[in-house]
Structures are given as structure tokens and as C-alpha cells.
Design a protein that fits this description.
The complex is a heterodimer of chains A (157) and B (629). Chain A has 157 residues and is an alpha+beta fold. Chain A contains 7 helices and 5 strands, in the order ααααβααββββα. Helices cover 44% and strands 13% of the residues of chain A.
Chain lengths: 157, 629
């Protein structure tokens, strides 16, 4: 992970955004797309740029589940919590993954190699039950397959 | 029609015609989120390589989804002479070389073929329209899907695109509203409120500027109809909003797309850029003197932003917390200016209505709900796909026709008619896909995502899931909602853990009558699943609460995993697999150390004959016999 971006760099990054035009979310997306997460400094810079307070911007960041205030793990496993996956045994897959990776939902390993978080249904329900490993679908899972996948990830394969 | 639009259309038609008459083989891959999940991106790369290797004179392109989501990637191959187009399914990257080899030799590949799209059927390949999945569908919104390149505005223009807008340009706002009212187009997200009336609110509003919002925050898990449409034919939405802008004198429009749909976001962004480049958006559109801007806006993961005022707040006031109504968006929406919010499908229908007239549009069926509706089906059925049908077929017909029946060994136990707020219906195959029957049952037919479940699903567990979702996604404004859903989840989990009490039915009743006082739909309808499931599956709920038994074998606190035949060789693998090491050696075989068991069921998957799920609390009459077997 590279060092946290400095104030000047961030100011340039969000210079295009203007107050009062619905630019808070686009600015935050741009920060996260660039650095992988939103730093405290970034929140302050965005607030200044958009003529609002850091509290309001932080409120926005914390409201939405897809904004992160910490760097993502090297490998992020998103567990699909949708109903089609649930009907096909998805919740037992979550139990097994959490146990095997020794992680709570939205947690990551101390070495930041593996993270586990909730993924919202994107309608690839023909692959249910599924997880996304760094955005790639691993579908038609069984609990056994999920455990083996977790073991491979832990072993660094 | 506007002469500049006419010129755009005729040049697009020419370029489409010359593409069709190019004398080259045309290979199109459906490229959407469902096909990407099955490696469509890789298929395209391999196709390019295979075409080059075989020196095939061919072009490789992309299209939107045919709706055969469970058989992606789908590929169409059009012969060089243009006499025949065949649709192939399950064209995985490994199968590309074989397909191209056949195509290069002038053959087709019946084992992968779904049907003939254009041209005559062959001895081995029937017409696509004869495929059971296609029968009974009326594809209007989906007409271009599988045919045109969603990233090419000319393809859209060559297929009647922007003609509806052209007509609307020559009408006054009142006449456009009347046409939409006459069509009977109702809101497509489950409410069914007449779109024409909403448009009229905006038309007659006095303040300015005025805004349009397209609600593309399809947050209902298990629904992906808007995604299919946005990824497959994004210009339909742009054109629909343009027509609405003329009707409501709107100055700008926002398309709010959920973060989980990056491809839909990219496609709509591209469509909007193309529309600007052609002069269809911006200042003085096509010389008409009208201005209209569109911004494509990306959400960041929040279900309540699907509520119209939550969505508006998400755009202009950062946190997507639904507002207190009134004032309604029509009076004070975005930046407190008059705003009209419609669903993706509602806007997308407007071009059809303008192009072909209200009567044509509404006469597709006898149902009270006019026009066609897109649905996605998933869960315990064979086919998880996307269809466009008139309202009215029964659930039985839906399962038999468009879902390929239930999966082997599974019986229909019930279904979710549309989203986590919509309720849980029983296995009533005679219920029709119309709005009224669900209203009578205290449920509603939502945005089009229907999920079927079977005897291995527990309705208590399902409610626990839905309420957990509602709790997670509550914005936090109303105590009734964020506190009520929390309480509901606690009770449900207690029941699942074996702590059900007879007062729990009363507790649920209290929660139902309390949560309706929440500000927005989210809180008001959060208890619908529990309310409807307790009524429809009362026996199952009583069993959980009084007998401490889960007949589906799902609720973790009510079941035990046990070794049935300790000497089964498959148990070695099960022991190795168990994530908690709960399968321990016992004499010459294995046994399960119950406190360690997390009931994930991995062991039963690899050793189905050696492991059984039993009731934790019920009297085990056959215990001796089972242990001996």
C-alpha cells in the first residue's frame, strides 16, 4: 500500500467539483477509485472544496456501505447475501467462510491479505450461491467448495 | 419529423444496412453482468484469436442479454450471406475454438444451439421463437436485446430509436401527458401509480428549474430487470427521459444507478455522451430550442436510496435518508425544486407509447395493468432468467413455462413476490402476476424480481434474513424502524435458537402495528414478510416456537448433525473438511463433537450417507434403529 495522499494531491484530484451541485458522492467515488479508500485528510479536503463541513462529508462516507475508510485487503471476498443464494444454502457458506478465514463480516486478516464483506445481490442469481473474489464471481458453490476456496486463499494460491 | 433527427436516423439505418450486407460473418456475444460472470470477456478475446487463426472473414461484436441468464455466455453467429443467424448458449471460453472451427467450415453446432433467430430452421436447430422460454413473451423493451450493440447509438437509431422523441417534439406538453395517461402506464416498481399523472404534476408545477430523476437503484435483492435493460438498451432510458422532459418542461435529469451495477453505469454514461454528441441532449436540442441535460449518478450501497426521497437526498444532501412527506417531490424534490421520479422501466416504456400510440401499447393483454412487464425468476427453479410478458399469467404457468419447472427433487413451498418488503406467499400456483391479488394478501408485487423457494427453506429463517436486511439498511431516522427491525431480528434469532415463547406472536403483532408509523416504505413494510409468513405458514412457526422443531432442518439451534454410520469411508474427507474440527475419531470410526459443530453442513455434502440432520429437541423415537443402520 502506498503512503497516504497529501493535501495538495487531494486538492488537485477533487478540483473539478463544485458546491451545491450534488458533487459530494462523485468526489468521494473519485477519491476511493484513486486510492482504494477515503482518508481523513480526503474528507477534510472534499469538505473544503464543496464548502461544507467534514462532519457532513464523514456522515456521507459512513452512511453508504461501499465507501471505505481503510485500505481494502489484498484479496477481498464478498459474500452474496441475496435471497436466491440464501435459498440455495448461502448462509451456511457464510458460517463456514467466517470460521475458516477466522474473520467477522467486514473484517480482514491482521496481515491485510484477506478480507471478507457482505456483497449485495447484483442479479447473477443463476450462479447462486456465490461469492466474489476481488470482483470475480465464484458461483455454484457448496459449503465444501467454499471451505476449499478459503483454504487456497489462506495458503496464498 | 424534425429534419435533423430524420437525417440522424437515415444515416444510422444506412450504416446498419451496410453492416448487415458486409458479406462478413457476424459473431455477437452477449456482454452483460450475467455473462461476464461466466467468462464472456474471455470468450470475446478467444473469439478474436480463433477468427484470426482460422482466417475467417468475420466481425466480433457485443449485444445485450437475451434473458437466457442461466445459459450464458450466449453467442449469435450470422452467416456471411446474411441468410441465417443462430443463437448458441453456454459458449464457455473452452468451447470457442470448436465453434469457430465449425463456423469456418460452414457448419453449425447443434449441441450448443438454442435456435435460429433469422432464416429457416434446420433439421437439428428449431426456430428460437419455438423455444419454450420465448413462447408467450412479448418483447418490446427487450426487442433490441441480443440484436443491437448497446454501446452504439446508431444501432438504436436504426431500430426505431428516438422516433418516439421525434413525435413528442411536435406535440405540446399536455398532449404528451395525455398520450401517457391514455396508455395506462403505471409505475413499474410495484406501486402502479399512473406515470401520466406524475408527469402532469411536473407539467403544472410553477417553480423552476425542474428535475427528472430516474430511479435505477434496483436494490431489491433477487431482481435484475432494470440491470438487463440498462446494460442491454441504455438509450431507451435516455429517450424516455427526453420525452418526459418535454412533457414536464424539465431542465435536467439524474439517472441514479446503484454501485453494484458498474456496467450499467458505464453503458448509460456512454449512451448519454453519445446523445450529447448527436445533439440529442444539451442546449437547443436538434434546433428545437429545447434544452435538457442528463447526469448519470452512481450510488454507494444503500437500499433506502431506492425510496424516492432517499434517492433525492442522496444526490443533493449527502446521506440518503428518506424525507418526511409532504412536501412531495413534485412540489419540492431535488434542491427543493419540482421533481419527477420514475423507475427505469417506466421511462423506457415512454418511447414505445409515443412511437406506436397508447392504444397499441395498452392492448397487449386484458389485464388491468397495461403493457408488458419485465420479470426475473430465480431460486429453486431450473432457469434463472429474465422475461418480458404481459401481466396476468399464473405462478404455475410462470414456473412451467419460463422457469423450466422446479429443480429435481424440489417442491414449491412459496415465493417472494418482489423484494424484502413485499411479503412471502405460499405455493399457490393460481395466483396471477397482477397487482391486486397480492394487495388482498397484504403483500405487493414489486419491481419484478421473483424468488421461488422449496421444502428445504425455512420461512422463519427467511424472515430472519429479510428482517436482518431491513435492520442493516434502515437509515436510522425513525425509532419505529431502526429499533423495531432490531427487536424483530432479536426475536426471530431467539426462536431459531430454540427460545421461542408463546408471546412472540403477540410481539410480532405489536411490531407490525408499530412499524407502520415509520416515515417511509422501508419501516412501514419491514414487517410484511413476518406478518404474511406467520399467517401463511402458521404450522411451521408454531412448531418452531412450541415444539422447538424446524421441519426444513435449517434453524441452527433446533438441529443437530449426527454420524449415522461411523464406518463410512467418506467420513475421512468430512473430518478433514470440517472447519471447526468437530468430526473426531471415535474407536474405529468418527463422531461429531456437538459443541464445536457450527452446522455448516459441509460434512453432509461430502458424506451424505454417513451424516444426518436430526431434531435437537424432539423425541427421537427411532434413535436406536438409526444408530444401528
Amino acid at each position: 500500500m502506498t503512503a497516504e495522499p497529501g493535501v495538495q494531491e487531494l486538492r488537485e484530484l477533487v478540483a473539478e467539483f463544485e458546491p451545491g451541485r450534488g458533487h459530494v458522492m462523485p468526489a468521494l467515488h473519485k477519491v476511493q477509485d484513486t486510492y482504494g479508500y477515503i482518508t481523513r485528510t480526503a474528507i477534510e479536503v472534499v469538505a473544503r472544496q464543496l464548502n461544507t463541513t467534514p462532519a457532513l462529508v464523514y456522515g456521507t462516507v459512513s452512511f453508504y456501505s461501499d465507501f471505505r475508510t481503510h485500505p481494502p485487503a489484498e484479496t477481498e471476498v464478498a459474500w452474496c447475501c441475496g435471497p436466491a443464494c440464501r435459498v440455495m444454502g448461502g448462509d451456511r457458506i457464510r458460517e463456514a467462510l467466517q470460521q475458516e478465514l477466522e474473520l467477522p463480516l467486514n473484517g480482514q486478516t491482521p496481515d491485510h491479505r484477506i478480507g471478507l464483506h457482505i456483497g449485495q445481490c447484483n442479479g447473477t442469481c443463476s450462479e447462486a450461491p456465490q461469492v466474489w473474489v476481488n470482483g470475480e464471481v465464484v458461483g455454484d458453490l457448496t459449503v465444501a467448495k467454499a471451505i476449499r476456496l478459503a483454504r487456497e486463499l489462506k495458503a496464498g494460491e | 419529423m424534425n429534419s435533423r433527427l430524420e437525417a440522424l436516423i437515415s444515416s444510422a439505418k444506412q450504416s446498419w444496412a451496410s453492416e448487415q450486407a458486409s458479406g462478413r460473418v457476424r459473431i455477437n456475444v452477449t456482454l452483460d453482468t450475467s455473462s461476464q460472470a461466466k467468462g464472456a470477456g474471455q470468450v470475446i478475446e478467444k473469439l478474436h484469436a480463433a477468427v484470426a487463426a482460422k482466417k475467417l472473414v468475420a466481425d466480433v461484436g457485443i449485444t445485450g442479454s437475451w434473458g437466457f441468464c442461466w445459459m450464458e455466455p450466449c453467442v449469435t453467429v450470422r452467416t456471411a450471406a446474411g441468410t441465417q443467424t443462430v443463437l448458441y448458449a453456454n459458449v464457455t471460453p473452452e468451447r470457442v475454438d470448436e465453434l469457430i472451427e465449425k463456423v469456418a467450415a460452414g457448419h453449425d453446432m447443434p449441441e450448443l444451439a438454442l435456435g435460429v433467430v433469422e432464416g429457416n430452421p434446420t433439421a437439428d436447430i428449431p426456430l428460437l421463437s419455438d423455444h419454450p422460454f420465448m413462447q408467450g413473451q412479448v418483447r418490446r423493451l427487450m426487442a433490441n436485446l441480443g440484436i443491437t450493440d448497446p454501446e452504439n447509438i446508431d444501432h438504436y437509431l436504426a431500430h426505431g430509436g428516438y422516433e418516439g422523441f421525434g413525435k413528442a417534439l411536435e406535440m405540446d406538453a399536455e398532449a404528451i401527458v395525455k398520450e401517457i395517461l391514455d396508455s395506462g402506464l403505471g409505475g413499474r416498481a410495484g406501486g402502479g401509480f399512473p406515470a401520466g399523472r406524475k408527469w402532469d404534476f411536473l407539467r403544472t408545477a410553477t417553480a423552476s428549474p425542474r428535475y427528472l430523476v430516474c430511479n435505477a437503484d434496483e436494490g431489491d435483492p433477487g431482481a435484475w430487470v432494470n440491470r438487463v435493460l440498462m446494460e442491454g438498451d441504455p438509450h431507451l432510458i435516455v429517450e424516455g427521459m427526453l420525452i418526459a422532459a418535454l412533457a414536464g418542461h424539465a431542465d435536467a435529469g439524474y439517472i441514479y444507478i446503484r454501485y453494484e451495477y458498474p456496467l450499467a453505469f458505464a453503458r448509460l454514461k456512454k449512451a448519454v455522451e453519445q446523445a450529447y454528441a448527436k445533439g440529442l441532449l444539451g442546449k437547443d436540442i436538434l434546433g428545437s430550442g429545447k434544452d435538457f441535460e442528463i447526469v448519470v449518478f452512481l450510488g454507494a450501497g444503500s437500499y433506502v436510496c431506492g425510496e424516492e426521497t432517499g434517492l433525492i437526498n442522496s444526490i443533493d444532501s449527502y446521506r440518503g435518508m428518506p424525507r418526511i412527506k409532504p412536501p412531495f417531490p413534485a412540489q419540492a424534490g431535488l434542491w427543493n425544486k419540482p421533481t419527477n421520479v420514475n423507475n427505469v422501466e417506466s421511462y423506457a416504456n415512454a418511447p414505445m407509447i409515443m412511437r406506436n400510440g397508447a392504444h397499441w401499447w395498452s392492448s397487449v393483454s386484458d389485464a388491468k395493468e397495461k403493457g408488458t412487464k419485465m420479470f426475473t425468476f430465480s431460486g429453486s427453479v431450473n432457469w434463472a432468467g429474465c422475461v418480458e410478458i404481459p401481466f396476468g399469467p399464473t405462478i404455475g404457468e410462470v414456473i412451467d413455462r419460463w422457469c423450466g419447472g422446479m429443480r429435481p427433487g424440489l417442491e414449491l413451498k412459496g415465493f417472494q413476490p418482489g423484494g424484502p418488503l413485499s411479503g412471502i406467499a405460499t405455493a399457490n400456483r393460481d395466483l396471477t402476476l397482477t397487482l391486486d391479488p397480492y394487495r388482498e394478501l397484504g403483500m405487493f408485487l414489486g419491481g419484478g424480481g421473483i424468488v421461488f423457494f422449496d421444502q428445504h427453506t425455512c420461512t422463519v429463517d427467511l424472515c430472519s434474513y429479510f428482517l436482518g436486511f431491513c435492520e442493516d439498511e434502515s437509515c436510522g431516522r425513525c425509532t419505529t424502524c431502526h429499533g423495531g427491525t432490531q427487536r424483530a431480528v432479536e426475536i426471530l434469532r431467539r426462536i431459531q435458537a430454540g427460545g421461542g415463547r408463546d408471546v412472540d406472536f403477540e410481539n410480532f403483532q405489536k411490531l407490525v402495528s408499530t412499524l407502520v408509523w415509520s416515515n417511509c416504505f422501508h419501516g412501514q413494510f419491514a414487517m410484511t414478510t413476518v406478518k404474511t409468513a406467520v399467517k401463511a405458514f402458521e404450522d411451521e412457526w408454531r412448531e418452531h416456537i412450541f415444539d422447538k422443531r424446524c421441519r426444513a432442518g435449517v434453524c441452527q439451534g433446533l438441529i443437530d448433525y449426527r454420524v449415522r454410520s461411523a464406518g463410512d469411508p467418506a467420513l475421512t474427507e468430512a473430518a478433514e473438511l470440517c472447519p471447526t474440527g468437530a468430526i473426531v475419531p471415535d474407536g474405529s470410526g468418527y463422531t461429531i463433537d456437538d459443541p464445536r459443530c457450527i452446522r455448516c453442513g459441509a460434512c453432509k455434502e461430502v458424506a451424505p450417507n454417513a451424516i444426518e440432520v436430526v431434531d435437537r429437541f424432539a423425541v427421537r423415537v427411532a434413535e436406536g434403529a438409526a444408530a444401528g443402520g
